[in-house]
Amino acid sequence: MYRFDYVRPKSVDEAGKFLAAQAKNGAKILGGGQSLLPTMKQRLAQPSALVAVAGLADLNYVRVAGNKVTIGGATLHDTVARDAQLQKLVPGLTHLAAHIGDPAVRNRGTFGGSVANNDPAACYPSAVLAIGGEIITNKRRIAVDQFFKGLFATALAEDEILTGWEFTAPKKSGYGKFLQPASRFAIIGAFVAQTDAGVRVAITGGGNGVFRAKPLEDALAKSFSAAAVEGVKVDMSHFNGDLHASAEYRAHLATVMTGRAVASCHGG
Amino acid sequence: MEKTLFKAKPKADGIGAKVLRREDQKFITGKGHYTDDMNRPGQAYAYFLRSPHAHAKIRSIDIAAAKSAPGVVALFVGKNMESDKVGSLPCGWTVKDRHGQPHKAPPHYPLARDTAKYVGDQVAVVIAETLEQAQDAAELIQVDYQVLPASVKCDATLKPGAPQIHAEAPGNLCYDWELGSQSDIDAALKSAAHVTKLTLVNNRLIPNAMEPRAALGEYDAGTGNYTLWSTTQNPHLLRLILCAFVLGISEAKLRVIAPDVGGGFGSKIFAYAEETVCAWASMKIGRPVKWTADRSQSFQSDAHGRDHVTVAQLGMDKDGKFVGLKVETIANMGAYLSSFSTCVPTYLYATLLAGQYTTPIIYANVKASFTNTSPVDAYRGAGRPEATYLIERLVENAAREMKMDPAVLRAKNFIKKTQFPYQTPVALVYDIGDYDASLNMALDMIDYKNWPKRKEAAKKSGKLRGLGFSTYIEACGIAPSAVVGSLGAGVGLWESAQLRVNATGTVTILSGSSSHGQGHATTFAQVVSSKLGIPADKVEVVEGDTGMIPMGMGTYGSRSLAVGGTAIMRACDKIIAKGKLIAAHLLEAKPEEVDFDDGEFIVRGTNKKRSFGEIAFTAYVPHNYPPDLEPGLDETAFYDPANFTYPAGCHVCELEITPETGEVKIVDWVAVDDFGTIINPMIVEGQVHGGIAQGVGQALLEHGVYDADGQLQTGSYMDYAMPRADLLPNMRLGFTVTPCTHNPLGAKGCGEAGAIASPPAVMNAITDALGISHMDMPATPEKIWQVLQGTTSQGKSG
Ligand SMILES: Cc1cc2nc3c(=O)[nH]c(=O)nc-3n(C[C@H](O)[C@H](O)[C@H](O)COP(=O)(O)OP(=O)(O)OC[C@H]3O[C@@H](n4cnc5c(N)ncnc54)[C@H](O)[C@@H]3O)c2cc1C
Question: Class of the B24-32+494-639 domain?
Fold first, then answer.
């Protein structure tokens, strides 16, 4: 690691002020550090300062009111996974959180860190994009559909803190994940949400960032069943090949994982 | 030759008892002491600048900025070691090629001199007050590289036009070696009724011990003595190599200490550049120098394993009796020859090609090649997994092609119980075994009778089920010195033990074996407890320190019990013999009238006796003592084994494939092993479990991949897939016992068996499930899915 300053603000406000002044000099937000710290250890990142938000109580919560849900920006994966109300209301989301990494990762890694990082193989972005709603920051609200901007890119400004996500619980939700054998990130993850605005399917792991798969959504709109997506093809331009899977296999898995996600909605 | 088998009485803490590992408490509670836990006054930290290129000429190195960076104590490059006459890291086994010429041995300098030959090759070392400062300074070193074309594949590197890696090895050929007669095998295959042919790759593996390599060198300017703490598996051998071949210092001036070592799997046998530099640099700067690999460095610079390409042919008569086996292998040595790299694909590989079978004629040709990759050397099983994989895949295919049951074909060709000792056509003499017994027990345990029903039931639920056998053999207890010497080994492979009986009757074993996870402290105490008839908790085991242990050859090749344990038994015999002299004196009898039984010296036919503790006390308080006898009860014994030992057995893997994705689920695993006498069943089961996990890892997940430019693509756990618990079913173990005939314990060794047996069991099951003849490891879901796509478009066969 290179040298850096460690800043522990007492509130989102204080963190925001520090970032407003220092982000341009290389200050970065530190969530659970599960993505950022490994890159720093390998000297692939050199922030001037880390502003730790994970300990802020006002960012660490799951709130459920009727079918309105808000998840705080620094909520641990484990907190989401174990939330009893959420397990009933959005089982796809708690299942997803429960299968991120290992217990150590889930008890450090935060919702905001995952979504702000927008790793092309991360799980959470698929849930957020499929379920919709709004991303809340210390500055504004951003519609989910405007939030993800491709590989490791989001609508967030450098000094902007993701403080939460607010959404209406989908009627049904499910997540199908095919593990990359080494990292156990998603080779392909498919999140299916049956929302008021129709069925939304978001695919992660394709290689170019999370995206919505229209052909799968159309098929599921006609019949919300695993059988409905069998053989449905997703545009190949969304998929890249690498050491672990070819583009062709990923495209195939996107369909199969969507089928599994739907099956899980039906208790399968 | 050791003919009498020691028969231990049943005892709660002796031979055969499931004693909890005494070392686990400290390891599990974080109270171990590893090399990186050692800190010495004035210690500085080393950081190695490694080549980012697989092959590059080093035109110049500008160290000015780095040298004056904060905290920097010293900075060395290859030239500095050269002018100090620090030598090349030697390869300890000379393999003679088919024309009698020794293998090509290009130098391997601890810091590269003119050319970097793989990504990770050490180009410079910075020593600073802190590790961070050393690393900061290393970033300021300006190396002017002239990048050269790289060669990474073991077969392509031998083709004309491939980049030339060492001037000493034209065409990148290290050796072209053979065993057996080519004309004999060609004739045998020609006359065969059927020949099964297979081309296969044994995938490159990266060892990944839990504890990364580390070293701490300290030089005492007052005495001129060096101390080197190292994560080595054999401290005495490291001392020998560093003193006699590399640093040119007296062996008496270097003390090597291997404190707790967290796994090695072979990768810590070898003498490495980094520890050499730490020892040497500590003298140069007059301060202790520590280096600890981080995981990325381990991936890059630990010796890797396997990496073969093989074409094999098995000839049979019309009834399926094997008439000949021909094997042509190309083995990757990597960029330099690691300490024992040359013997792995030759004497530890081709000599095992008979397997459990009576194949009368066997021929092997092995070409070893240089590539711009990390050196390749012994890794759990070392040569024997490669041999077993090849034989067992071939035999399975032979059965399919002959339309015979694979279990029946195997049994038909087994060396039978009555045929031992059995001289194979590939040099080894198997002393004992019962291959039908382990196969039959395995068939029973897996319920082979009902296998077709299970396959059918799986098909109904949309799964493809496969079953695969592996009837393996290995040669352990490495090894008779005269034999390995005649084959080119530069060392003897005996083991030593000192048994120090303390005045109060407790015992300290100083063993030349070097545990790095095997549980010697528990097992050896059990052995001595049974042999001397004293409680195991009165026995302590000391290993891993050349300053304390007379001599040693370390732990690898499943040798520590069969060879090291026998040395301990012999030292016990010497203790008992001396004890008898003391007892005879005390009991006023003749020494030959004194028997030793279960902790007591007894005058035969009388009730006159003395306990072991009384004799120990008398030896150190010799007030009433035989006049000509030296006081003390402390004996050292060496043991040079008469033969290898031959653990063998049968593993069966049953698995299911989900056709829509190619996912594999292992649903059952039966392992029946014959390790001879088992000292601690719990430790043995643990070794089998771990070995199977490693072998299944090779079959399904692990693969060290370099891209065409020689960059390691699988350089971290993000990309190199290790086996996890959920990969494996509950493994069901069975044991048969034919005690080894030439050591008093009857022990054969168990450390590598699982890793040797399991890959072909998995791959035989996968190819069975898919109805195909072969797939290279690792069998990833995508590869399987691709196969199924192919079959689907051809109209599914089955
Ligand atoms: C072994 C391992 C396995 C893993 N497996 C998975 C997996 O299966 N699936 C998966 O999805 N992920 C996985 N992860 C990643 C894990 O979920 C991380 O926790 C997550 O990606 C990043 O969250 P974090 O809180 O640790 O963020 P950090 O690492 O602290 O930060 C990541 C990035 O987000 C920024 N950031 C952090 N918090 C905020 C915020 N509130 N507002 C704005 N920007 C912010 C940081 O500046 C940084 O750029 C794994 C990680 C590890 C180490």
Answer: alpha beta
Distance from CA of B796 to the nearest CA of A (A): 18
Q: Tens digit of pLDDT for each residue in B258-268?
A: 999 999 999 99
Which chain B residues are closer than 8 Å to A241 by Cβ?
none
Q: What is the 3-state secondary structure (H, E, C) of B683-751?
A: HHHHHHHHHHHHHHHHHHCCCCCECCCCCECCCCCCCCCCCCHHHCCCEEEEECCCCCCCCCCCECCCC
Query: Residue B247: which H helix or E strand, with range?
Result: none
Rounded-to-integer distance, Cα A156 and Cα A146, Å:
10
* Domain at B308-478+643-789, CATH class: alpha beta
Nearest-Cα residue of chain A relative to residue B139: A43
- Ligand 1, pocket residues at CB < 6 Å: A 28-36, 53, 73-74, 100-101, 105, 108-110, 112-114, 116-117, 119, 122-124, 156, 161-162, 184-185
Contacts of B294 in chain A (CB under 8 A): 41
Distance separating alpha carbons of residues A2 and B549, to the nearest angstrom? 43
CATH for A229: 3.30.390.50
B553 alpha carbon – ligand 1 mean position (Å): 47
Tell me the CATH class for B35-148+212-261+268-301.
alpha beta
Angle at the Cα of A83 (from A80 to A89), degrees rounded to 5?
95
Q: For residue B639, what is the enclosing H or E element?
A: strand B634-639
Task: Among B713, B717, B782, select the one facing A245 at the smallest CB separation.
Answer: B782
- Which residue's structure tokens are 């001199």? B113
Residue B499, sorted as left (phi over 0), alpha (psi -120 to 50) or beta, turns out to be: beta
Ligand 1, atom nearest to A74 Cα:
41
B580 contacts: CB under 8 Å, gap ≥ 6? B591, B594, B596, B601
Determine how β-strand B142-147 pairs with β-strand B56-62.
antiparallel
The helix or strand, by DSSP H or E, that contains position B364, with its residue range, turns out to be strand B362-370
Count of alpha carbons within 13 angstroms of residue A216, beta-carbon side: 30
Q: Please tell me the total count of domains within chain A.
A: 1
User: Looking at the complex, does the CB of residue B792 fall below 8 Å from at least one CB of chain A?
Assistant: no
Q: At what angle do helices B406-413 and B435-446 cross, to 10 degrees?
A: 170
A·B CB contacts under 8 A: 37
Tell which wins on pLDDT, B791 or B200: B200
B717: closest CA of chain A, how far (Å): 6
Tens digit of pLDDT for each residue in B273-316? 999 999 999 999 999 999 999 999 999 999 999 999 999 999 99
What ipTM was predicted for this assembly?
Answer: 0.96
User: d(Cα B619, Cα A150) in Å, to the nearest integer?
Assistant: 80
Residues of A in contact with B300 (CB under 8 A): none
Q: Is B780 in Cβ contact with A181 (below 8 Å)?
A: yes
Distances (CA, A) of B95 to B240, B309, B348, B479: 20, 19, 12, 17
